[in-house]
Specification:
By secondary structure, this protein is α+β, with helices and mostly antiparallel strands. It has 21 helices and 23 strands.
Length: 738
Amino acid sequence: MKKNFKILFLVVFVSVASCSFTTKEFKDPDKDKLLLDLISYVLQKGHYDPKDIDDAFSADVYENFIKGLDPLKRYFLASDLEEFSKYKTEIDDQIKNKDLSFFDLVYGRFQERMDDVKKIYPEVLSKSFDFNEKEIIDVDYDNLAYAESKKALKERWKQQLKFTTLSGYYDLVEEQKKRESGDTITDTEETIDDENIIDISGKEKKSETKAEEPFEPKSLAELEEKARETTKSSLDEYYDFTKDLERKDYFSIYLNTIVEEYDPHSNYFAPQEKDRFDLQMSGKLEGIGARLQKKNDYITVIEIINGGPAWRSEKIEVGDAILKVKQENEDESVSIVGMRIDDAVKLIKGPKGTKVTLTIKNVDGTISDKTLTRDVVELEETYAKSSFVEKDGRKFGLINLPQFYFDMENYKERNAATDVKKEILRLKEEGMEGLVLDLRGNGGGSLRTAVDIAGLFIKKGPVVQVVSTEKTDVLEDKDSEITWDGPLVILVNELSASASEILAAAMQDYKRAIIIGSKQTYGKGTVQSIVDLNQWVQNSDLGDLGAVKMTIQKFYRVNGGSTQLEGVKSDVVMPDRYSYIDIGERDYPNPLPYDKIVAAKYNVWDGYLDYDETIEKSKARMAQNEQLQLIDDNAKWIKLRRDEKEVNLNYNDYSAEIDKRKEDAKRYKALDTYNNHLDFKSLPYEIALMKQDTTLSEKRKRWHKNLGKDMYIEEAVHVLEDLKLNTIKAKNVADIKN
């Protein structure tokens, strides 16, 4: 592989823009005011759907900035909000006049309230908690009123700290019970938590037992005291981090609040954030191999990078929240709840080969510790790979495509489209009768590769329409060659986004493939551009100004419908654990709307005899599938767990809830042992490589083992068996190719 090989791993298709739509000069010596003026102007002139900067815009910025600083209402008082409210409809005017009065007031008050809280928690944690009391904590923060006084705020913190300590106390009690009975302590046991509760204990859950340490049982009072100590230690660490934050860090939050009013994919990158984004674009992905995003006070996993440690471990999934981080040479974990994402990433990342233990709030709401060995992403695992699926003597092909990748310096060097074509040709040589293209979890990437892959399955024609403020471009496959003209199924889920949706939508509109998977895909139908703000200011001593990522175009299907919000609706719907979780574009604030344009001219594929009948047969099978019903029940159970708004602070009640949840979870263990009775085999060229590369052999064994539990692959094969080709059409295609 060439040293300059660079692959773009982005959920969005990004083009770096050079804007030249103004002669306006930006010379304000105050950097904050200049940034406010410059960013507002760039967005108004360059965004696909610029917002009216009016009172409604002002009210949204007002609410979102305050919520961004204090999402769980544990700092500001009701009196603060009353004072802030006079600016609720004035921020639009302040933006136009480069007035920072609202920001200065809220920022200053937040610093005061932070100082107040630093005095509260040591005092509260100096006294023992009574876990025999009947008490419940309400975590419906959206509907929670701000505290009326400092005394009321202290009571709110006392209840929160009691919960955190109870969580640690429960773990210590359970660990002691197991050590007394001689049971082994594992790092994956589950406890209870709630989606909205901040677990700030910082304790090490299920700490590894050192054989040389003599076991001395502690009293319940001693365990309670230890739980309080670790809670305090974690908060001390947290506020050590926050004291290093500067005014410019909070001003970046304010600027982003304004920018994100346009749409959820438009962001301001402060200089440090821009550097990190550039590093991501270079493909140099190190650490645990996961993309993280801060939502409220939680650091949440939004993408697992194929080939990375998190992917290889199979312990972490999209939707998990990372609560704490522990280095291998440390005794206690550090809470990252509420921490800046930059600081959290510093703790999570580390040298290759070192271990890090993450305390994870899993998608289903349970808590567990996961230990990962840091490493670089194995690039080969981010590329297309294929396997044979054998059933009753028939051979079907499976191609897994994790990303729509390409070489940023030379598109022809290597890209997803050329790799997929190679795999198809290899599968055809071995007698493939039908093809499954797996786009589940594929967050997108290069638009061009999506168009080129579509061209492998159709003779020629439009694939996607791209609309900007100035024009509509129809991107077409102009090559009449068809690489695969046989039965085709595409697998998708809620995490299939952007370029994945373009490809799936085109194949659905042409009736070229049957789409199997989630009710709908992610629903991201927009294109973003990066604008370097420094190009506007010449000979400035203000330093690096950063950059803005903004939406400049929208995608539309060849039938005229947008993939925005609606995504691609599967022909055959199969539920999964994300079915009822808010995880798509529609669940973010300020998404651009769904709409339609005029359809492009295209000819529906006429290579099947029974396209619609095959879909109906598959739906009938799904309706009778008991395993699928169990998956749906599990998804509903996860949703129910995440929607709970009250948690017991009585130890016995808390413990009983955990026991019940563990018992409920046993019902779904059967999902991990499912066997689809399909045979998966590597292609001859890979088998030859495995003789020299035992690591590759182990990777493929693991992949095939997981495929053997995959019900979605099983149904895809059933659909391929049902699809009947129009033999007349097939002959014509063969004649054309000859």
